[in-house]
């Protein structure tokens, strides 16, 4: 079973991204579960969502405490929440950031992309907040290798009702633009 924990803020579409990933897995004949975790928080407050994806029926209903992958949709959460807590040794972190330079990691595989820039470029905003969930969904799908890009795009077509083409483009750009950090600065 592959487990993912998403960290973001209310209004960024974290829960929707987790649902799309689970649906993409189901479309491939796997078992997929998405589960949100938030209280009465308002837009901008920290939220989490979880995925479990497996080739076998998933019976666990709890939060994900020891994920294989952590998706950090808003890097400002690093100073507020221990986003790496419980991440399996050798696990994967996918971060929405244009520059990985000032973040310190060891023992993990780090992927990063400017999901905010992609969302803004495509005009994907609600109440002035960039909807970074679709680029992050593409990035997480590629970094994890658990679902194909085609399945993710089909899940988006199945569930999203507005700006479908832009959301699909955001997923594609997230998939294409996510980079693996090898301890050297790009450029």
Can you offer a commentary on this structure?
This protein is α/β, with parallel strands linked by helices and 187 residues long. The chain is built from five helices and nine strands; from the N terminus they run βαβββββαββαααβ. The strands form two sheets. It has a seven-stranded mixed β-sheet, covered by helices on one side. A two-stranded antiparallel ribbon has the order 7-8. A hairpin with a 2-residue loop joins strand 7 and strand 8 (129-130). It is globular and about 35 Å long. The model has no long low-confidence stretch (mean pLDDT 92).
Give the CATH architecture: 3-Layer(aba) Sandwich
| H/E topology pattern | EHEEEEEHEEHHHE
| CATH superfamily membership | Pyruvate-ferredoxin oxidoreductase, PFOR, domain III
Spans of 5+ residues with little confidence (pLDDT < 50)?
none
Q: What is the fold-level CATH name, i.e. the topology?
A: Pyruvate-ferredoxin Oxidoreductase, domain 3
Instruction: Tally the structural domains.
Output: 1
What coarse outline follows from CA principal-axis ratios? globular
């Amino acid at each position: 079973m592959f487990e993912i924990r998403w960290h973001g803020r209310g209004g960024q579409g974290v829960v929707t991204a987790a649902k799309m990933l689970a649906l993409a897995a189901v479309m491939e004949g796997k078992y997929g579960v998405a589960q949100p975790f938030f209280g009465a928080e308002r837009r901008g407050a920290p939220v989490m969502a979880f995925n479990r994806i497996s080739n076998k029926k998933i019976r666990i209903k709890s939060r994900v405490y020891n994920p294989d992958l952590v998706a950090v949709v808003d890097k400002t959460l690093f100073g507020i929440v221990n986003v790496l807590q419980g991440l399996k040794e050798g696990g994967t972190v996918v971060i929405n950031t244009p520059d990985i330079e000032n973040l310190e990691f060891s023992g993990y595989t780090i992927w990063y992309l400017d999901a905010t820039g992609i969302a803004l470029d495509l005009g994907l905003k609600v109440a002035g907040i960039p909807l970074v969930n679709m680029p992050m969904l593409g990035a997480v799908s590629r970094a994890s290798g658990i679902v194909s890009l085609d399945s993710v795009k089909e899940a988006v077509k199945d569930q999203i009702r507005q700006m479908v083409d832009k959301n699909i483009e955001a997923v594609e750009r997230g998939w294409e633009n996510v980079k693996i950090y090898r301890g050297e600065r790009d450029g």
